[in-house]
Structure formats: C-alpha cells, structure tokens
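Students often ask why we bother encoding 3D structure as a string. The short answer is that it lets us treat folding as translation between two languages. Here is a chain of 154 residues written in the first language.
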Amino acid sequence: MSKEDHYAFIQGDRIDLTPRNKEHIEIYTKWQNDPNVRRLMRNEIPKTVAEMEKRFESRGEENDRTGFELWHKGDKKPIGSAGIFRISWTSRTAIMGLKIAYIFTTNKGSYSVAEKAGFTRVGILKNEGYVNGKFVDAYIYKILREEWEEIVKS
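And here it is in the second language, the structure alphabet:
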C-alpha cells in the first residue's frame, strides 16, 4: 500500500478512519516525539522509528486493542490517530482514545472533539496527569453502542 492509498473503515465527509499503515511509521514517530503533542499524552519517553516499528508489529498480535489513522481526504495524508483499548469481548466494553485514554481538562481541542462526536462527560479524575510542570485533572467520557449507532445512522 502506498502512502497515498487508504482503506476506509469508517467514512466521513472530509476524514476517514482507516487502519494504521506501516508506511507511516515515521509520521507516527514524529507525532509521538512532538513536544506539543506529547505534553497532552502520557508519553514521557522519546521513541525511535525502530521502537515504533516493533510496537506496530506487536499490536497486530493483540486482541484487546486496535488502532486507526485519521485520514484527511482532501490532503491525502494522515492527520492523527485513534485507538480502541482494553476491549472486553465478554462485557462488550472498551476505551476509545484519540491518543489518550482520558482527556486532560487543559486539552480543550480533544474534549471538544469528543463532545461533538456524541461522547458524554461522566466524571473527572483529580491530578491525573502532569503537564507543563503542574498536575492537571482529566475528564472521563463515555458513549454507549446504541448512542454511537444512532449518531452513525443520522
């Protein structure tokens, strides 16, 4: 698959959710190490391309998580990533993250996206993260399958 190819798992008007593409490892590594991205994630350790490749390969063997690219149709390139983690096939639950498990209260962009996508804020974790030299709270969001299916239908 070339860098221009993508296979939409979920299609949107401007952005598709596609499987992660190994050919984009260098882009993922750049994102992981970007100080502006990293400060709002839980990634304190620098990552190399080789480490990201190893992680990419091992993720294919795990059945409790999956990851996606956010593919910009107009620009024909990945602009972000998302994942579903801690999938429990028996209880039919999971955690979805846009590079996050919880959204820090200082990250207005991420929680605005979650709310626009139909997620409901259900809680707050006090002093959950450490960003720019101080502890910050994190919002917890949820969406039920039925709620998601209603959104997708409309």
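Translate back mentally: The mean pLDDT is 79. Keep this in mind for the problem set.
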